[in-house]
Amino acid sequence: ERAAFVLLRGIEYIGPKILCLFVGNAGVRCVNWCPYGEIQRRLHSSDGFVGDYRLSVGRHPGVREIVFQNTVSGELVFCWMGVLMAFVGKCEAVERPRAFIGWRLGMLLCSFACCVVFVVTAQARTALLVLGIMVVCTVLFRLGAPSRKFLNAFFLVFVGCVAIFLFVYAHARDFGWYDDLNGYSQMLFGKNIDSSRGGIWEQSLKRVQGSELLGLGADASPEGVYEGRSFHNTFVQAYVQNGLAGLFCLVSALFALWRMMTPASPDPVISIALSVLVGVVVYNCFESTLLSNKLSLGYIQWFLLAFGVARSFLVQRRKEEAK
């Protein structure tokens, strides 16, 4: 029922948006009638599946607008990467790959185009950014054929660059380029480039002072003006709730998955799986999916990582049997 709700509401909202691309009517929007009067509330669920649909009532009592946010866009992006992994793996397994590819490649490319249109229409900046990063990394990993040592070093450097980026992002307003870049973000997406994430992170990190090693506990969450919101960053969440120990365990777990896949890096499916792990890290710099909150998306991400590890073990076993 919940999946059906998400699908129908997504179509209900995104349909008029896509129509706007053709008719040019930016004022088209989807509204339903609600008997609860002029209220505003958020739906929350244990698995986060419908947690990103905000029911907000307009100025006139009885009207509610379902605002489509980025969770379904993220799910769509990572599901498409999973389909790509399965497609490439199947091409490697069949005896006549050219005959197998045929119309399936066309369907895959059409689905990618639909995915991009869906994400752009929903104005899901994080999903769009991560999709681009995963596609670029897949091409680079495949064409560059990097060694295992290079890939392991790449991950460590990548984590360091992510940490620097998050620091800059949280203090973006202090830099001279903020106004110009924020203007582009407002023009394209109607949102500030940093939204409220910087404030949430700054406040949350200040609360940890004195409990840096083990954190504040699993029930810790943003407070004050940000009460009831997520951390919008899995790594900040891990640090606040479980301290440096928890953050180290999380990063170590991701690095362990990376190292499990790198021995089979020449395999095209592994190139995609490594790109997915890069995308997972980037996505969780802006959202919380791996540990809580948007677990419907987190389950997909964990599954794709497990798929990559299983594929790596399969490739390594085939090499040993061939010897």
Notes on the protein architecture:
This protein has 323 residues and is mainly alpha-helical. It contains ten helices and four strands; from the N terminus they run αββββααααααααα. Strands 1-4-3-2 form a four-stranded antiparallel sheet. β3 (53-57) and β4 form a beta hairpin. The termini are far apart.
Mean pLDDT: 76
Strand order of the largest sheet: 1-4-3-2
Main sheet record: 4 strands, antiparallel
Q: Give the distance, in angstroms, between the N- and C-terminal Cα atoms.
A: 51 Å
Please indicate the percent range of residues in DSSP E strands (runs of 2 or more). 5-15%
| Strand segment count | 4
Question: What is the chain-wise order of helices and strands?
Answer: HEEEEHHHHHHHHH
Shape: globular
Query: Roughly how much helix do the residues carry, as a percent range?
Result: 55-70%
Summarize the helices and strands and which ones pair or pack.
Layout: H1 2-23, E1 31-33, E2 40-42, E3 53-57, E4 63-68, H2 71-93, H3 97-121, H4 125-144, H5 148-170, H6 178-189, H7 197-207, H8 234-261, H9 268-283, H10 295-322
Antiparallel strand pairs: 1-4, 2-3, 3-4
Helix pairs in contact: 2-3, 2-4, 2-9, 2-10, 4-9, 8-10, 9-10
Give structural attributes.
10 helices, four-stranded antiparallel β-sheet, 323 residues, mainly alpha, globular
Summarize the structure.
Helix content is 64%, strand content 5%.
